[in-house]
């Protein structure tokens, strides 16, 4: 059995980013940019006013100025002003030729086609957005690796970009195994349990912006599982199986994976929950066999699957690790790393009740996983521990 660290290292050694694709800017939000983007144009493309007012030559500010025309936003024809002249102008409109400054309309007195200024704070170039002042043609607009946030999308649209090269999100298949599984909402017969792993996993994946998720059910039947796994592999970058990775007579994941030419990277990790975790690859495709207990599934998701998504999509999604002070003593046998469901607040962390891996009630209340190292058995109140803050 390998350690948690060895498992994490092995996973990262076997994953590379998905091949970038070009998509419409409008669909790119939440992705990571796969190339540097350079501005093609000066933005603004022309000198424009940032206020409703009057455009003038600054040197004329003391004079009475005659209005010789108007520039509205969107106008395609320019006017030219001479000394002693002004142009009525609106926010976003091009500056008339010859003008260098805009006075706000609140700061003038107008009579017929004449204005006089009362603006002691007027400066040369005031209320003018210079050509290229947002970005100059040829300048680096956004670096490869940047997150396409709403603001980034707006910025790129504003400099005329309509298509971007991004790292795609993986296409994911979830395969839940187990003859005992029943759909929530249906009556529960003797021996059945409600199927919850596909729900928690799909919710976690959607939280990361993954939308292409296929869910399959496979009975505890090797032939069915082989077929389902083969189908899932054909249409996915990442396959998450739950259940069937332990040593029971009906645990077929390892055998089905071998049959589907999945190269085993590891099986079993010195951890609780999630000891029988399996990880394998087929070419660029990744396969996780998550131990079926609902809490093991999620604990392994946050520890191994989420960091893998980060590499595939180049999106910074990882759980944050912080150091926190333990509020109560806690003991465990040495030999396995334990991940406890906990509550983190103001630098302190408290393990919750109901840590068993078949239970999710504590996980549903938790905001973190507390990492208890493999070799240590006793943890005292006040000990400083590593805590993984979970995404909401
Ligand atoms: N003799 C041993 N028995 C077990 C060992 C072991 O080392 N020796 N390991 C235990 C540990 S730890 C875990 S974790 C489980 C993992 O077993 P599997 O991955 O084979 O999972 P299953 O047996 O199929 O299911 C475990 C448990 O989870 C429930 N389950 C499964 N799928 C779902 C689902 N989609 N939704 C809700 N609940 C699910 C299932 O009914 C079982 O109760 O093995 C231990 N045994
Ligand atoms: O490792 Mo299992 O996940 O303890 O129940």
List the helices and strands and how they pair.
Layout: H1 4-13, E1 21-24, E2 32-33, E3 37-38, E4 48-49, E5 53-56, E6 65-71, E7 85-89, E8 101-104, E9 108-111, E10 114-117, E11 128-129, E12 140-142, H2 150-158, E13 163-167, E14 172-177, E15 181-182, E16 193-194, H3 197-207, E17 213-218, H4 222-234, E18 238-242, H5 253-259, E19 263-267, E20 271-272, E21 278-282, E22 285-290, H6 294-313, E23 320-326, E24 330-331, E25 337-345, E26 348-351, H7 361-365, E27 368-372, E28 378-379, E29 384-389
Parallel strand pairs: 6-7, 14-17, 14-18, 15-16, 18-22, 20-25, 23-26
Antiparallel strand pairs: 1-13, 2-13, 3-12, 4-11, 5-7, 5-8, 6-10, 9-10, 19-21, 21-22, 23-29, 24-28, 25-26, 25-27, 27-29
Helix pairs in contact: 1-6, 3-6, 4-5
Residues 176, 178, 180-181, 193, 195-197, 242-248, 251, 273, 275-276, 291-294, 296, 357-358 line the site of ligand LQZAQKY5.
Characterize this entry briefly.
The protein has 392 residues and is of the alpha+beta class. The protein has seven helices and 29 strands. The strands form eight sheets. It has a six-stranded mixed β-sheet, with no helix packed on it. A six-stranded mixed β-sheet has the order 17-14-18-22-21-19, sandwiched between helices.
Descriptive report:
This protein is an alpha+beta fold. It folds into 4 domains: 4-19 and 169-313, MoaB/Mog-like domain (Molybdenum Cofactor Biosythetic Enzyme, Chain A), CATH 3.40.980.10; 21-42 and 133-167, Molybdopterin biosynthesis moea protein, domain 2, CATH 3.90.105; 48-129, Molybdopterin biosynthesis moeA protein, domain 3, CATH 2.170.190; 320-389, MoeA, C-terminal, domain IV (Beta-clip, Beta Barrel). The protein has helices at 4-13, 150-158, 197-207, 222-234, 253-259, 294-313, 361-365, and strands at residues 21-24, 32-33, 37-38, 48-49, 53-56, 65-71, 85-89, 101-104, 108-111, 114-117, 128-129, 140-142, 163-167, 172-177, 181-182, 193-194, 213-218, 238-242, 263-267, 271-272, 278-282, 285-290, 320-326, 330-331, 337-345, 348-351, 368-372, 378-379, 384-389. Strands 8-5-7-6-10-9 form a 6-stranded mixed β-sheet, with no helix packed on it. Helix 4 (222-234) crosses helix 5 (253-259). The longest helix is centred in the C-terminal third of the chain and has 20 residues, at 294-313. Ligand LQZAQKY5 binds at residues 176, 178, 180-181, 193, 195-197, 242-248, 251, 273, 275-276, 291-294, 296, 357-358. Keywords: Magnesium, Metal-binding, Molybdenum, Molybdenum cofactor biosynthesis, Transferase.
């Amino acid at each position: 059995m390998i350690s948690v660290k060895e498992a994490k290292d092995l996973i990262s050694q076997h994953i590379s980013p998905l091949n970038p694709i070009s998509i419409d800017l409008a669909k790119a939000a939440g992705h990571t940019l796969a190339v540097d983007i350079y501005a093609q144009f000066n933005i603004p493309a022309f000198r424009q006013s940032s206020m409703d007012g009057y455009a003038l030559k600054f040197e004329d500010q003391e004079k009475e100025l005659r209005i010789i025309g108007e520039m509205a936003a969107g106008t395609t024809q320019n006017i030219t002003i001479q000394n002693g002249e002004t142009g009525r102008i609106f926010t976003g409109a091009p500056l008339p030729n010859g003008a260098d400054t805009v006075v706000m309309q609140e700061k003038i007195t107008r009579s017929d086609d004449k204005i006089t200024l009362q603006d002691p704070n007027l400066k040369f170039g005031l209320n003018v957005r210079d050509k290229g002042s947002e970005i100059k043609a040829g300048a680096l607009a956004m670096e490869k690796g940047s997150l396409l946030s709403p603001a980034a999308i707006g910025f790129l649209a504003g400099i005329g970009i309509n298509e971007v090269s991004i790292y795609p999100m993986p296409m994911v298949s979830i395969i839940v195994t187990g003859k005992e599984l029943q759909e929530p909402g249906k009556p529960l017969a003797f021996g059945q349990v409600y199927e919850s792993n596909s729900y928690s996993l799909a919710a976690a994946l959607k939280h990361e912006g993954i939308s292409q998720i296929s869910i399959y059910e496979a009975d505890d039947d090797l032939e069915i599982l082989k077929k389902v796994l083969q189908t899932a592999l054909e249409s996915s970058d990442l396959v998450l199986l739950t259940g069937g990775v332990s040593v029971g007579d009906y645990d077929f994941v390892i055998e089905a994976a071998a049959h589907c030419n999945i190269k085993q990277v590891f099986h079993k990790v010195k951890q609780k929950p999630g000891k029988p975790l399996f990880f394998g690859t087929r070419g660029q495709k990744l396969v996780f066999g998550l131990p079926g207990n609902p809490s093991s599934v999620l604990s392994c998701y946050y520890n191994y699957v989420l960091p893998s998504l980060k590499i595939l999509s180049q999106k910074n999604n990882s759980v944050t690790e912080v150091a926190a002070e333990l509020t109560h003593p806690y003991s465990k046998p040495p030999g396995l790393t334990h991940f406890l469901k906990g509550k983190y607040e103001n630098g302190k962390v408290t393990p919750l009740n109901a840590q068993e891996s078949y239970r999710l009630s504590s996980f549903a209340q938790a905001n973190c996983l507390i990492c208890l190292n493999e070799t240590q058995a006793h943890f005292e109140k006040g000990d400083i521990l590593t805590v993984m803050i979970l995404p909401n």
